[in-house]
Specification:
Order of helices and strands: HH
Helix content: 55-70%
Structural class: mainly alpha
Number of strands: 0
Number of helices: 2
Shape: rod-shaped
């Protein structure tokens, strides 16, 4: 019997590696596409209004006296 028999076909480890890397690549590209789409279509987030108390503190830090004092 000949010991030098060539094995036709792909290495199973290579197939698993290609499938997993393909899935990861698809996932990353899909996330990027969704991110770009969301940036274009969704409205910007609304900022929370600053409370009067917080505004007063900020003015005192900057050295500007708050009105009514």
């Amino acid at each position: 019997m000949a010991k030098d028999v060539e094995v036709n076909g792909f290495n199973p480890g290579l197939i698993v590696l290609l499938v997993i890397s393909g899935l990861v690549l698809t996932f990353l590209i899909g996330n990027y596409v969704l991110y770009v789409y969301a940036q274009k279509t969704l409205p910007p987030k609304k900022k929370k209004p600053i409370s009067k108390k917080k505004m007063k503190k900020e003015r005192l830090k900057q050295g500007v006296s708050a009105p009514g004092e």
